[in-house]
From TrEMBL:
Recorded superkingdom: Eukaryota
Molecular function terms from GO: magnesium ion binding; phosphopentomutase activity
Domain Alpha-D-phosphohexomutase alpha/beta/alpha: 139-282, 309-398
Upper lineage: Eukaryota, Sar, Stramenopiles, Ochrophyta, PX clade
Protein name: Phosphoglucomutase
Protein source organism: Ectocarpus siliculosus (Brown alga)
PANTHER family: PHOSPHOGLUCOMUTASE 2B-RELATED, PHOSPHOMANNOMUTASE 45A
């Protein structure tokens, strides 16, 4: 017997409730989704008309919160290693400070690529490049951690800045929790970004080696992971902190260093200021780090399988309330990972909720640090969802959405769209969904 219109209506509402629950859970933990528009092609009524804009917080600025400015590392004396290349004659005291900063950089930086660039500035007497890279405001640590362009210099993100940041965080955790925090450990994950000789993988491994050097356990997640898995992993392993190496939806040249406290939440004051001050006191590398040896040692383990299984078991058990209704909903939707790491995780989330498989934008489904089809992978940006919308139109599908590693907004694309707030539990009941339908 064919389902009545009322039954069909309820099924599609149940299905979209599940989709919104999936996206709501991700939002709480730091993932972003963009819901463009959705229509029940089987039911008589249109319950979600183009389009909804669902805001879960203020739009993220391109850079992390810059709450504390650290001193320039170039001002720190370092007499342990002598420069082997000739120094250009300084014209002024200010010029002398620039070349001193360059000398410090070459002595401290373990990365051949960035070290060679700064060495080139020295050998060529390129004062302007040296001043821009080494004497501007260094990346400051705030509640969003660090975020900036990958490249040489204290105002960018690179191996040396990651070492300095990890050393400062390490000392702060020692002060706050001592041996207890060391035994609880730190969860570390990363995305797929890469620029020149710098990469998220390298940053994550360096951070791990810093913590291991001070006797911390390290839970280093294997491969690329979605940001919520690090936040969840901190709570699951009872770690004292977590680090996620990602620049979220920023352009391809950017990267970042996000920090979570032992409750699995992003750090808040006064921890941000305390960590920033600790970084300023620990700028010189403690040792020449060997990430490969450190990761192979007894203090490092891979918790990925356990964390992933518990995460999806938890959302299936706690949030999937009507799997049978989801399965018969006939929901059709297009999804794009925008060259991020989300496709495999989104597939599994849909499966946990017994939703029909979505149609993936294949040219954007694999992680690609070049982001070849979208210059700025932020769903708020004009044209960022072009491929998803073209595929939806081609297939005659009325719904399209996107997720990227850790963005914040569900974005509408029509001026007539209304705002819809997702509450802190990510719960959208059938009654509320009906009320808020446009």
């Amino acid at each position: 017997m064919a389902p009545s219109p009322a039954t069909a209506d309820n099924s599609i509402i149940d299905a979209w409730t599940s989709v919104l629950l999936i996206l709501g859970v991700a939002t709480i933990l730091g993932v972003n989704a963009v819901l463009l528009h959705a229509t029940n092609r089987r039911a008589n009524g249109r319950f979600v008309r183009p389009l909804l804009r669902i805001a879960t917080g203020r739009p993220r600025a391109r850079s992390a919160s810059l709450t504390t400015e650290l001193p320039l590392a170039g001002a720190v004396e370092n007499n342990s290693t002598a420069m082997t290349s000739p120094m250009p004659p300084p014209a002024t005291r200010a010029d002398s400070e620039v070349w001193q900063a360059a000398r410090t950089w070459v002595n401290w930086d373990p990365n051949e690529w960035t070290r060679a660039i700064v060495q080139g500035w020295i050998e060529n007497g390129d004062l302007d490049s040296a001043r821009r890279g080494l004497m501007g405001k260094r990346l400051a640590f705030g509640t969003s951690g660090l975020r900036g362009v990958m490249g040489p210099g204290f105002c960018r993100i690179n191996d040396l800045v990651v070492i300095q940041t990890s050393q400062g965080l390490c000392r702060y955790l020692e002060k706050e929790g001592g041996e207890e925090f060391k035994s609880r450990g730190v969860v570390i994950g990363r995305d797929h970004r890469q620029q020149g000789g710098l990469s998220s993988a390298g940053f994550a491994n360096l951070a791990a080696s810093v913590f291991i050097s001070r006797g911390f356990r390290v839970f280093l997640m294997d491969g690329t992971v979605a940001t919520p898995l690090v936040a969840f992993g901190v709570s699951q392993t009872k770690a004292c902190a977590g680090v996620m190496v990602t620049a979220s939806h920023n352009p391809k040249k950017d990267n970042g260093y996000k920090v979570y406290w032992g409750n699995g939440s992003q750090i808040i004051p006064p921890h941000d200021a305390g960590i920033a001050a600790s970084i300023a006191r620990n700028l010189e590398p403690w040792q020449l780090y060997d990430p490969e040896s450190a990761i192979a040692g007894p203090l490092c383990s891979d918790p990925t399988e356990h964390i992933v299984e518990e995460y999806f078991r938890g959302i299936a058990k706690g949030l999937c309330r009507r799997p049978e209704a989801n399965a018969r909903s006939g929901l059709e939707v297009v999804y794009s990972a925008m060259h991020g790491v989300g496709d495999s995780w989104a597939q599994r989330a849909f499966s946990c909720f017994s939703l029909p498989p979505y149609v993936s934008v294949r040219c954007q489904s694999e992680p690609d640090p070049e982001f070849p089809t979208v210059a700025f992978p932020n769903p708020e940006e004009q044209g960022a969802l072009k491929e998803a919308m073209l595929l939806a139109e081609e297939r005659g599908i009325d719904g399209a959405f996107n997720s990227f590693v850790c963005a914040k907004l569900w974005q509408a694309r029509q001026e007539s769209a209304h705002l819809l707030a997702v509450n802190s539990t990510g719960d959208l009941s059938r009654e509320r969904l009906r009320t808020w339908s446009l």
